[in-house]
Design brief:
4-stranded antiparallel sheet, 2 helices, single chain, mainly beta
Length: 353
């Protein structure tokens, strides 16, 4: 009887959502997801009225994860694991591993139904290097169906090296057009086709910010684009993903395909050794619909796995969230990474029609 009660209690605990870490102040705590995850993409769904995080499944030697999971929340503090939403080994014909750095966008189709377009990088078995693919679903948690082929599988013209990874998708609110961005060692962007399943090759443009150093804005990877008050903001990651110095920099543009003007104070988010916070970067950004309220979702390195430890520096990362604020002139205030995270979202989010 005692054993039966213990098993029942364990089942109840495992079925509960991931709860806020700090019950006295009711904050999310950081990290917000269990175990190891990285390269987080955050989405608000107008269909469900909930928030979702998709990420690289971390902790595998050599960044060897082969599936993507999705977490769901109503308030940004309590996140529930909704399961594996795409498995490269069983659901993708052209790739078998290195499931990295996804992004997703929701679109209301002509028939009034929602569809979700999920872009990701994986190890292309034919090319023996990384490529970018796309899978589609009718719901933010899946099931997702892969398109059956990579949509970006070669370097842009004029680029001599780097990887086709770290993809981002963006809809321009001015023109209504959709764009894809990607790159490690370079930043590229291109307009997506009408069905969002391929890029318009002739629109591909190399956008790599020039100059900088590892101390400020030298581009490495992970482009991310958003729009605010007439400006296009481009964020990217600096230094190696296993370095404590891995951090986020930014610039702005008047166009979704650049050119990018690096900010005068370009650092958005960087390590805080005094708080044992290291390598906070590879981010996505969330605007609460119909509000000038912004959040940055990013990963940081678990402090027990810093270089030069042999325990796996670089692939033991954890997902975090903090508020992001702007100055009156539109520049981004430097984000202070925290262990407390964010408070529950106030008020009901108004969905966009």
């Amino acid at each position: 009887m005692i054993k039966k009660h213990l098993l029942l209690s364990l089942a109840i605990v495992l079925s509960l959502p991931i709860c806020a870490k700090d019950k006295t102040t009711r904050t999310s705590g950081n990290p917000i997801l269990p175990e190891f995850h990285a390269d987080p993409e955050v989405l608000f769904s107008n269909q469900t009225g909930k928030f979702y995080i998709y990420s690289t499944t971390d902790g595998a030697p050599g960044w060897g994860g082969y599936y993507f999971t999705v977490f769901e929340s109503q308030d940004l503090t309590n996140w529930q694991h909704r399961g594996i939403m795409l498995d490269l080994q069983t659901q993708v014909s052209w790739a078998n591993g290195n499931a990295w750095a996804p992004c997703i966008i929701e679109r209301k189709e002509a028939d009034g139904n929602y569809k979700y377009y999920f872009y990701y990088s994986g190890h292309d078995t034919q090319r023996n290097r990384k490529s970018i693919g796309v899978a589609v679903s009718d719901t933010p948690v899946g099931p997702f169906t892969d398109s059956g082929r990579p949509i970006v599988n070669r370097l842009p013209q004029g680029v001599g090296g780097g990887q086709e990874i770290d993809v981002d998708v963006f809809q321009d609110p001015v023109s209504g057009k959709y764009y894809l961005y990607w790159g490690n060692g370079y930043m590229a962007g291109a307009e997506l086709s009408e069905d969002l399943l391929s890029i318009k090759e002739e629109t591909t443009k190399v956008l790599t910010p020039k100059g900088g150093s590892l101390q400020d804005y030298a581009f490495r990877e992970a482009p991310y684009v958003f729009f605010r008050q007439g400006k296009y903001y481009f964020l990217w990651s600096v230094d190696d993903t296993g370095s404590p110095n891995y951090h986020v920099a930014y610039g702005t543009s008047d166009s979704p395909l650049g050119p990018i003007q690096v900010a005068r104070d370009p650092i958005v988010l960087i390590q805080d050794p005094s708080q044992e916070i290291y390598g906070p970067a590879h981010n996505s950004v969330l605007q609460i619909p119909n509000r000038d309220e912004w959040y940055i979702v990013y990963h940081r390195i678990n402090k027990d796995y810093l270089k030069p430890t042999p325990n796996g520096p670089g692939f033991h990362r954890q997902v975090c969230i903090d508020r992001m604020f702007f100055n009156a002139d539109g520049t981004i205030r430097r984000v202070q990474p925290t262990h407390t995270g964010v408070a529950p979202l106030k008020g009901k989010v108004k969905r966009q029609k």
